[in-house]
Specification:
Distance between the termini: 36 Å
Strand content: 35-45%
Strand order of the largest sheet: 6-7-8-9-4-3-10-11
Radius of gyration: 14 Å
CATH class: Alpha Beta
CATH topology: glutathione-dependent formaldehyde- activating enzyme (gfa)
Largest sheet: 8 strands, mixed
CATH superfamily: glutathione-dependent formaldehyde- activating enzyme (gfa)
Number of strands: 11
Shape: globular
Number of domains: 1
Number of helices: 2
């Protein structure tokens, strides 16, 4: 039995549930145009976890697109309610990571962004706090 403390999450309708380690590797704000379109907001907040310890129950659909970097991105969402749940990137796959849409976690009060990426396309009104890692690209 594993000693890793886990936390749960899921979609809006409850058809998809998942568990991940309680502590993400990184919590990042992505300002790319694709994330803006997928979320209908200024950015997407994601938490990275090792794929090997992520457990998913329920059916997800996925859409693969080509990111501004030219690499493929696969975004998974609930088949019933459409809630965005997971993103997979080439670099994340190479590192064995999956990116979970942080707002779908059951408990989020302890999560704070540690990085902002694709800031070249961030909305002008979004302010990035001093001391937080920031990159124009992924």
């Amino acid at each position: 039995m594993s000693d890793i403390k886990m936390r749960g999450g899921g979609c809006l309708c409850g058809a998809v549930r998942y568990s991940v380690p309680s502590q993400p590797i990184v919590v990042a704000v992505c300002h790319c145009r694709d994330c803006q379109k997928q979320t209908g907001s200024a950015f997407s907040l994601v938490a990275a976890f090792p794929r090997s310890v992520v457990s998913i129950e329920g059916d997800c659909a996925s859409l693969e697109t080509t990111a501004a970097s030219g690499s493929p991105v696969t975004r998974s969402f609930c088949c019933k309610c459409g809630s965005p749940l997971f993103s997979e990137t080439k670099s994340g796959n190479e590192a064995g990571l999956v990116f979970v849409k942080a707002g779908t976690l059951d408990e989020t009060l302890d999560l704070a962004p540690t990085a902002h990426v694709w800031t070249a396309s961030k909305q002008a009104w979004v302010q990035i706090p001093d001391g937080i890692y920031s990159a124009d690209r992924e």
